Fold these 2 entries.
Entry 1:
Amino acid sequence: MPELPEVERARTAIERAGLNRKIAEVDDTDTWVCRPHPPGEIADALRGRRLVSAHRQGKTMWCETSGQGRSRTPGPTLGVHLGMSGRIVITQRGGTPTEGGDRLTGPYANAQDDPNRKAIWDRFTIAFGDGGSLALFDKRRLARVRLDPDLSRLGPDAQRVDRSDFVERVARGVAPVKARLLDQSVIAGVGNLLADETLWQAKISPRRPAGELSRTELNRLYRSLQNSTQAAIEHGGVHTGEIIEFRGVGRHCPRCGTEMTVAGVGGRTTWWCPQEQN
DNA sequence: AACAATGTTCAGTC
DNA sequence: GGACTGAACATTGT
């Protein structure tokens, strides 16, 4: 699931329900998700502190932490990347399910109250002193947790980049424009579904070489990206986009009725309308 | 059983 | 070195 809109919602959930609660214990024993930190390293760094703010650039999130005890010196930054399927689940005092957090829905709804969920799919957990917790739930296990994450290779956030910066960065090279949009060092936050949605809205073929787009097309692409991103955040995620339900064999373009085309572009399965997207 | 999956990274080629 | 492509990564769902 997680592209920029889902990560933004997770960040908001942390901001609303996960801050300023004392960290009593941390389970960082999944050495794959927490690599390269050895078990206990993240726990030792966080125990006794509090998360004090939640930030995001593209699909990368991080929390700043408080000093310990009377110390005014801030703690380390806790970086979280949701990977392909990670979600943040926050519980309140006494473990009440996810009030204010990201309630599990859709195919994972069953896992919400599954007693085995924690043991099997919670890859990283912070236990707060009040009895609640913040967990990284991730079936696919491609999520990442790390201290003081390196953000230097991320481009500007797709939601905050201004138009001239966007145009200058995207309109380069001979690679397909979709590949350019997916490159996190160019613009951070666009994933496979949001890219298809944006290109469909802008009526631009995903295969067009990025450097050959006209000024008009680039402006349209920028607008479409802003619109589809904002809509996805408000409506609950990229899966709420218009084009998403038209990914599938025999499906038709919701605007013109032409049968959708599928092919690999930029290394990902890509759907587009061959009639309108040129 | 084989393949795709909303993610990143790294090896290899030009 | 930069630009670009494709495979690998761990696991699940179809």
Note: Residues 215-235 of chain A form the longest helix (21 residues).
Entry 2:
Amino acid sequence: MVKHMDVPEETMQRMLAYLRELDCLWNEGKEKFSSQSLAKALHMNPAQIRKDFSYFGEFGTRGVGYATKQLIQELRAILNLDRTWRLALIGVGNIGSALLRNPELKRQGFEIVLAFDKDPRRIGNKIGPLTVEDVVNVKRRIREEKVQLAIIATPVECAQETADKLIQADIKGFLCFAPCHLSIPDEIRIVPIDIPMALGKLVYHMEV
Amino acid sequence: MVKHMDVPEETMQRMLAYLRELDCLWNEGKEKFSSQSLAKALHMNPAQIRKDFSYFGEFGTRGVGYATKQLIQELRAILNLDRTWRLALIGVGNIGSALLRNPELKRQGFEIVLAFDKDPRRIGNKIGPLTVEDVVNVKRRIREEKVQLAIIATPVECAQETADKLIQADIKGFLCFAPCHLSIPDEIRIVPIDIPMALGKLVYHMEV
DNA sequence: TCTTGTGAAACGCTTCACAGCA
DNA sequence: TGCTGTGAAGCGTTTCACAAGA
């Protein structure tokens, strides 16, 4: 199976959207689908879907379509979503604790196994099965628990230093909720979730 | 000033990133910058920045660069961020209440003025200055309060019906935290924030 | 000399259109 | 006949390279 090289980033993101939609179709009992039916549901061009799939292999049957269950498995494998990922969370404020309480993440294969904060009033608190630990121990604990991914949910002021600490702990990628640019080496992957920026995208298109 | 027509979506998103970075530069006391210095800070090509700006006008001085404060004002006006936007929040669970408690939003010009839920145990609760209202009154209250934008923070199961209700209430755009595709008319704008999908983007690039 | 603003070239993604199969 | 898989065309974005101006 082809992977990564020469696959546009846009294709990969759509693959995630296809998988999400296919999970729905499967739950609704739809055992097969065509590029046309999926395209209609997602408001897009069927050729786009076929082209996206074609980067990774041939999954359909000409004249018939695709088998939903089989495609779900293929997509999970392609996207590395056929296993459980262990995450560290840094910053147990509003957003951080919302993530800890969110059962959807575990259902999708993402388990937060470590939670850190720098505020002494939060250290030691239990949230679900986890105890909030002191952020000074990040490096040691992440290595002990063999965690590869992290979520930065600290205030902007601490985001860069947190990222630096995580990189020292050999974290290979993180999700960042702090609305600021972080300087990190090229080989580290960062996916930002910037809520004010998302609201900015929304209002740009509003007539005033 | 040119606006919207012929401006690539990518350009608009980068404009938001420029503004975010310029706010930082201004706070650090940097009164001017060049496309080169900004490009270096953001890890990008300076020609890209100049081209992006050029869609909206000429903001710099040849041989000199740009004035930080002036550019911040220009960008705010271009992006419709030179005013306060009033929002309704639907779903006061983990994520919803984290948003209500997040002071960053108001600082950036986004004020949540209405909060709704369908769970009787949450209706009537006070969070900060707001009281959680019954979602059955969404339409009336949104019109009374003249709110144009909404945040959907409900579970996936209620997301589509919530969107339908909001559209009936003449909401023109929304941010959606529910990780699912929503069917909405073309003229309504939706910006999704899908946390499991963001984690998916992250792990695709991990070697296993 | 330095940096902006911008046509034009280069590049990459999307869409088309049709051959290949069931 | 119906739908997939795909080379090639079409199209939009990025980057280059340089004229213009401080």
Note: The beta strands of chain B are 32-33, 66-67, 85-90, 110-117, 126-127, 130-134, 149-152, 173-176, 189-192.
